[in-house]
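Q: Could you write out the predicted structure for this multi-component system? I'm mainly interested in how the pieces pack against one another.
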Amino acid sequence: MNAPEAAARPGTADRAARQQAVVAALRPLLPAHALLWHAEDTTPYECDGLTAYRERPLVVALPETEAEVAALLAACHRLQVPVVARGAGTGLSGGALPHALGVTLSLARFNRILRIDPRARTATVQCGVRNLAISEAAAPHGLYYAPDPSSQIACTIGGNVAENSGGVHCLKYGLTLHNVLQVRGYTADGEAVSFGSLALDAPGLDLLAVVVGSEGMLAVITEVTVRLTPRPLLARCIMASFDDVRKAGDAVAAVIAAGIIPAGLEMLDKPMTAAVEAYVHAGYDLDAEAILLCESDGTPEEVAEEIGRMLDVLAGCGATRLEVSKDEAQRLQFWSGRKNAFPASGRISPDYLCMDSTIPRKRLADMLLAIQQMEGKYGLRCCNVFHAGDGNLHPLILFDANDPDQLRRAEAFGADILETSVAMGGTVTGEHGVGVEKLASMCVQFSPAERERMLALKHAFDPAGLLNPGKVIPTLHRCAEYGRMHVRKGLLPFPELERY
Amino acid sequence: MAAAGDDPALARLVERVRAARADRCPLDIRGGSTKAFLGGVPAGEPLELRELAGISCYEPSELVVTARAGTPLAELEAALAERGQCLPFEPPRFAPGPGTPAGGTVGGMVAAGLAGPARAAAGSVRDHVLGASLLDGRAELLSFGGQVIKNVAGYDVSRLLAGSMGVLGVICEVSLKVLPVPPATATLRFDCTQAQAIDRLAAWGGQPLPVHASAWWQGTLALRLAGARAAVEAACARLGGEAVDPALAAGFWAGLRDQRDDYFLAAQAQVAAGATLWRLALPATAAPLALAGDTLVEWGGAQRWLCTDAEPATVRAAALAAGGHATRWRGGDRSAAGFEPLPPALLRIHRALQAAFDPEGLFNRGRLYPDS
């Protein structure tokens, strides 16, 4: 039910004619090898990390210079052809899903690190540089780029900017938005534009704040300047077991209430623990109903002090087992389970659907119990990992996509989790973005007037509506359809919860 | 935020905006009127926000507070302090204006988007905005963002409101991320030139040290460290310098934050005599600017105050050449642009955004840019 709106299907002849026109317009602007339109060449671009949705692009362009990007955008603008920018294609919400009549603009070749300035603690890189490559380039100076989405080996900084990516350390170190100083790129008609500044603020409205997280719908970003952070001297991690999810949820709130901002605070439930332990043997407590990973980083003195305070709080909350990493190898072993939660789920189920909502931390236990009830309702299993410090949930709904009924139930299960999150005062997506996957859920979270202003905001940047059209903000018509479907079903989840 | 129907102050506000829209009567949005000096001269019928006050929701373990726009900043900070928390970006508390003894408000803090000495270490106002409700030019109450730290649902309009000077609409309520007060602080003093100060701050910034604020003026660099007790003690031992008495230091940083310390008092006198006080936002490592006048350096070099008789064009050109921008802060010609003029592509987006949220141009005309 959260699937993308069925676009008007062009006839084969229409498509071919349009393809011919676009190729003819772009050919003089790009090297021959930078333009793909045969099905065997464009099929690899038909989806991103959300493989359930696929669409073959009309044309794929792989420019190598900014001048080529500008010329391509101007040409597409003239022809009124949609443009979908694409980084590494690791996104989990279909943000880079191609447009059937549009150009997929791959920025993979913008992969140069332009400047590391250790004195200013900044890195200026092209948009196709991988997240981890920035930290590797900064490492000789004792610096790194703090946001660390789990896909950081592969995902690009341009994609991170588009999605406002997080990671496991963002409670302490912030999201992409908090670590980006300036982005440069082009508007939909190919005009050069720059948002932010190498100073700490820029004049006028803070457009950088909306461009970050805009899922490629406001401008095409080609260059990013990020803030680098001094690498902490030491990090240590506590692994805490609880015999009750409510106690674990309360412990998360208690750590924060004690005035501690952990470098990372993650939670796994019992089914998830079992799945990852069988996969990586991280030494997790298989009897625990929930496990918390609680990390401290900084100077050795700072870490010793903070670990001591965390242990006191966790013990006070009824932890049944507490273990502190003795060295870096053991710390990485503790994390190996958490970091392999997705592949471990892939081993125990043919398919899984990963959700990404955020709720107030105090509702973590309520949410786990609600999800347990939903397992019965939809007849499917669910493993849970949470960025508990941020209240960001990643329930993994296990199903078999070969069974259409299971797919339908999995999607209904997912939509139920998202709506429950909104009802608990949260949001439908914490870090993966709306893309096409959560379009319908946006109807639940925002009023028609709010969605209309968001569409107007897009229009202010992109009056012709050519950049990644149809993503993020659902049309009023689409939400009306979604509403009808719900009334028909007659059961809004959790009627006892206050709706606001 | 409660619906306008359940909330008389909000209902009156909606009614006011609706009437202003019908009459095409421009409005001057006012909280504590402590920042009326900033940007263009306020124009239009006053729209007082002080009635729309109160902390709607504060849960220390969520690190989030939600307050209505007219809530006095002092009231919000007192509520946070009671639970050992704070606004980490240290917004300035300017002297109350005549008839507004309560001082600045939460709405004014977000609309102006100003941060204090901890900005370079702790982030900006925008970095701490999680959500906001906005009464726009169609008199519709809109809600963006939320009360959770991670949220990428739709465009982040709430963060766009920070520093918007009210030109997109009336900020009615905001949710802010708050943090615990650091367990320990210490202030060190060093004698050095401006260039040496900028160099040292850059070097310290590249190391895992709990640097929290800095200020250089007239040959003296003050450095505030804040964080875990052990980390602050270790840093003090390593950096040397002269330890400043904690009470004296607290007074100094508060004065700097609120722009009532010796530098700003001296600047005020010079402004009265015809000089202009400028705020320069520069890359932190930019070399000292070759401009005549009295300079105070903050934020590790990223914010520099300059009180000068130099021509506006000269000051702006110097800031631009250094990779930053200049804001006319106090004094000078207020009919000219206070904020740095925008390149055409950005100006076009600004105008289109204003048209989207405030099609009749009701709110705070001319505060951000002339005749906008």
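A: Regarding packing and overall arrangement: The first strand of chain A starts at residue 35 and ends at 36.
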